[in-house]
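Q: I'm a student working through a structural biology exercise. My instructor gave each of us a protein and asked us to get a predicted structure, then write a short paragraph describing it. Mine is Rab5 GDP/GTP exchange factor-like. I'm not confident about reading structure output yet, so if you can add a plain explanation after the tokens, that would really help. Here is the sequence I was given:
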Amino acid sequence: MQIQITMSNMFLYLDKRDTMSQRSERRGIHVDQSELLCKKGCGYYGNAAWQGLCSKCWREEYQRARQRQIQEDWALAEKLQREEEAAYVSSHGSSQTQPPQSHSQHSLATFSKFEEKKTNEKTRKVTTVKKFFSPSSRTAPKKALVSRLRESHEGKTPSPSITRQSSIETDRVSQDFVEFLKTLQKPGREIHKQSRGFIESMGNKKDLSAEELSECVQDFYQGMSDRLLNHFKGSSEKVDRVMDQVEKYIMTRLYKSVFCPETSDDEKKDLATQNRIRALHWVTIQMLCVPVDEEIPEVSDSVVKAITDIIEMDSKRVPRDKLACITSCSKHIFNAIRVTKNEPASADDFLPTLIYIVLKANPPRLQSNIQYITRFCNPSRLMTGEDGYYFTNLCCAIAFIEKLDGQSLNLSSEDFERYMSGQASPRRQDDTAPWPQSGTRVDPALSQIHHNLKLLSSLEKRQQQVIEGAQNLQTELAEWQDSVAREVQEILERYPLEIKPRASAIDAENVENDRLPPPLQPQVFAG
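A: Happy to help. First, here is the predicted structure for Rab5 GDP/GTP exchange factor-like. I'll explain a few features afterward.
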């Protein structure tokens, strides 16, 4: 009877734990695929950096805002001009009772007031627009920017090896770009000329904000793409191939000046994200309800490759190459899920596994790489295709990590805060402890720790077996060597080698020499 009650409690506990895990998965990690699309409903993938819009809709909004700003500036200038003219006319009648004032002095005072009002009003409006369209960036004053750049140049001089390596890579990319353009003949020369001119012009725009630098690059992409479409008569495949090479050439040359620029707060975001992931080191695979079994060798290998790919993203200089690392990482994740479940992975399985990979890898400069791809990648890659899908999911994973709380992990807020502060860590009860009764809440981390202990114990046994096998092999090799030596010695003793002395003449051993005829003698005949 006691056994039946215990088994019943065990099944109730397992059923409740599975129900809570599924509930946690739906509440904390599940993301509807419609949430990944642009808020305008155009069907392309959106991006958090563009307020949920895709690249195309964001640029349209940005251009409309710029046009509105220009119109408002013109209207403000005309209004101020009319006010100044009316003030001048009204004060002209009272000028007879006041000391005479020269026309140049009056014009100078009027122009100064006009400029002051116009500058104040325009600054207020421009600031408002920048707050709406660029919430995370601020353009630093020119003097402060020059000072920071000077300090950065003096205090953060790259090592000669790094400089030499980047120079070699730049030269190689430039050579490949020229070789590629030779196949296009005359259009290739024009593309090379425009690309070089654009790079030179960007060298004079180092004081611009990150969003303004992005706008310059995206404008160049758009103009080049339009001209190529006209030249290739609408062949999008050829245009994409050329634009990939243009992006690789331009961004390799501009990488140092536009990646994590001084005018942005990307570095602060990197440190905040890195510290956040470090503080979440205690999060286990069970807490996230990740459908991956790392005990399977193929799954473990896929997880390691996924972590390597997302870390390797920081070493790439071209946005397209960084996207390729994200895509490769995601494919390894899908393979790990497929092998574990013996069926194709779903989107609900992919996102929590991606979050787990990011937490386990803690990629360097994660926010800077995300912003770099967002600002300078060819927008068509982020709007459609598998690259855009995987990149959008990575942005969702980062947003989830930043907002991760105890409710998402099926933990109380008190336990979550204790784990985050380092005051406590998930522990596993002894194996001798009784099975939890029905309704008892158990931290999933405890199960993971217990599972890891068992895994370590099994690994220790396997290691001991390997050591014993190696020792046995060594003994067998020594015995085999001795047996071979004994057999060789026995053969030598059985068939000794006889060396006969050298004969004095060729026919010394011929006993029938006496019976041989005499040798022939030469004879001379008279002719």
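A: Here are two points you could use in your paragraph. The mean pLDDT is 77. The first helix runs from residue 2 to 29. It's a good idea to check both against the output above yourself.
Q: Great, thank you!
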